[in-house]
Amino acid sequence: MAHSSYRQFCPVAMAAEILCRRWMMLVIRELVAGSTRFNDLRRGVPKMSRSLLATRLRELEDYGVIERHVVSHQSAVHEYRLTDAGRDLLPVVEAVGNWGQKWVESRVSLDNLDASLLMWDMHRNLDPSPLPKRRVLIQFTFNDLSPRQANYWLVVMPSGDVDLCRDDPGFELDLLITTDLRSMTMIWMGLAKVADLRERLSIDGDTEMAAQMQTWLGLSPFARVERKVS
Fold it and tell me: Which member of 63, 118, 172, 225 lies 3.0 to 4.6 Å from 101 by CB, making a disulfide possible if both were Cys?
């Protein structure tokens, strides 16, 4: 693969040539978080072009970080699975995320709001254990977005599996949460608690689920990192 090189034998330089290319660390973050299929990876990097994602995946395969496995020959569906080298990047991703949470000012993070990414992260970190042991439907409405972009639904199955829907799945609604995108992002990132932002949240439906929202919401993996900047 032809690309720029630092031309240094230092292992940091050699690793940086692979890991520090545009979007590469975010693709690795998605793989480490458990996404294995192209469309799921895309949902974790919604502003990345499909062609660039395909390029980065090919590069990671060439570098031995992932392996591509055929799931269905008829539909040409593949899964991208981490190798031992890829799994070794878990603490690297954690360290970068911890540093960002600790040292990057929250105002910088909150300048980059993205509802689709927020809801994708929320759906895979939600803790189903405090919720009723049945199918549960939770709707999030962001009142500062256009009607076309404002609504998301989380379907929590009795098994604990969680699906994210952009269209109303048509089941009986258990909880409707209406707020602005900035407030929900602050809660997800651990910059505020649900109780701190009650005046910005409208929660209608099951009262017990509403009372336990902070528990089942499932925050960012980095939310508990102590911040050193405001």
Answer: 225
Round to whole Å and give the CA distance between 185 and 74: 40
Residue 127's contacts (CB-CB under 8 Å, 6 or more residues apart) are 215, 216, 217, 218
CA dist 120 and 69 (Å) reads 24
Q: Which two structure tokens, joined as six digits, stand for 196? A: 């701190």
> What's the chain's average pLDDT?
94
How do residues 169-208 score in pLDDT, each as one tens digit? 999 999 999 999 999 999 999 999 999 999 999 999 999 9
- Please state, in angstroms and rounded to a whole number, the distance separating the CA atoms of residues 222 and 228: 13
Q: CA-based angle 21:70:83, to the nearest 5?
A: 45
Q: Distance between CA atoms of 68 and 66, rounded to whole angstroms?
A: 7
Q: Name the phi and psi angles at 34, rounded to 5.
A: 115, -5
DSSP of 42-109: HHHSTTS-HHHHHHHHHHHHHTTSEEEEEEETTTTEEEEEE-HHHHTTHHHHHHHHHHHHHHS-HHHH
Q: Number of helices and strands (H, E) in the chain?
A: 12, 7
Q: Please, what is the end-to-end C-alpha distance for the chain in angstroms?
A: 42
Question: Which residue carries 């395969």 as its tokens?
Answer: 61
Query: Which pLDDT score, from 0 to 100, does residue 73 have?
Result: 67
Closest CA to 156 of 212, 200, 194: 212
83-108: pLDDT as tens digits: 999 999 999 999 999 999 999 998 88
